[in-house]
Amino acid sequence: MYFELKENKPHGTKDDPFSIYHMRNGGRSFQVPVHWHDEFEIVYVKSGLLTVSISGENYIGKPGDAFVVSPGNLHFMGSQAGAVDYFTFLFPLKYISFRTDDMLDERLLEPLNSGHLMITPRVKDTVKELCQQLIEIYVTENDESQSIITAQIKTKIVLLQIILEMWKQGFIVENDTSGRNTIEKEMVSYIQQNFTGKILLREFGAQFHLSEKYISRYFKEHFHITLSQYVTYLRLEHAKQLLQDTDISVTEAAMQSGYQNVSYFIRSFKKAYGVSPLKYRKN
């Protein structure tokens, strides 16, 4: 199962930079491939067991647990059991900044944004009730029973309460992980820039001074997904976006996404998303 990610696109909108994604899977095991973004992210597990990896550290999230992904940190989520229900909340830290250059901005929010401070990834269930409040605001907003301004005020209040709780619990610490995952981030960037072409193991390994034999194992060990699976994910997501946003043919979408065999693309697309490319576009 693939989830739609928007790491190369802006999250939220200019009028409302806060984004909430509800991820629910009751079937087979899945993994949201490794990625990063400039926004601050909170991952909240509603039910099931969720494997979360942040900056190379692996965690198992239980119902009520929350995890924090600081801006720029590599991370991915998944479940071997398959049955899991979780939410992610994404927002730029300036969303909750008062922009007054006061002590809160100068000594807490700005250092968090720049990476000099970080929040420990696992904050357990200390913000469970606050995460539930964010979900309730989201549900109410979708029901259109409140204005966007009302929802934003409520959302910012809750997010500041979450930051306050993390401060009180001692979860905000100096960042001693700067410089880590540099090679991994460069690998991901290289693949994201070249996935529509042919990525040869020899050239990929040489790019990072690793042997052709070792590069595949290195990638699998660090990202819990094979290189070919990651390339396939990026190609299918790219094709899906083309089908959604343009009027080009299915064949052209396949070609622009790195597929030379259209029949294979259609089979892969249907296996990943449960519908054919043409039906996806119509729906």
From TrEMBL:
A Pfam family annotated for this UniProt entry: HTH_18
Highest taxon in the source lineage: Bacteria
Keyword DNA-binding carried by entry: yes
Alphabetized UniProt keyword annotations: DNA-binding, Transcription, Transcription regulation
Domain HTH araC/xylS-type, first and last residues per copy: 185-283
InterPro entries, sorted: AraC-bd, Homeodomain-like_sf, HTH-like, HTH_AraC, HTH_AraC-typ_CS, RmlC-like_jellyroll, Tscrpt_reg_AraC-type_HTH
SUPFAM superfamilies with a match to the protein in the record: Homeodomain-like, Regulatory protein AraC
Entry keyword annotation includes DNA-binding: yes
PANTHER family reported for this sequence: ARAC-FAMILY TRANSCRIPTIONAL REGULATOR, HTH-TYPE TRANSCRIPTIONAL REGULATOR EXSA
Protein's name in the database: AraC family transcriptional regulator
Species of the source: Blautia ammoniilytica
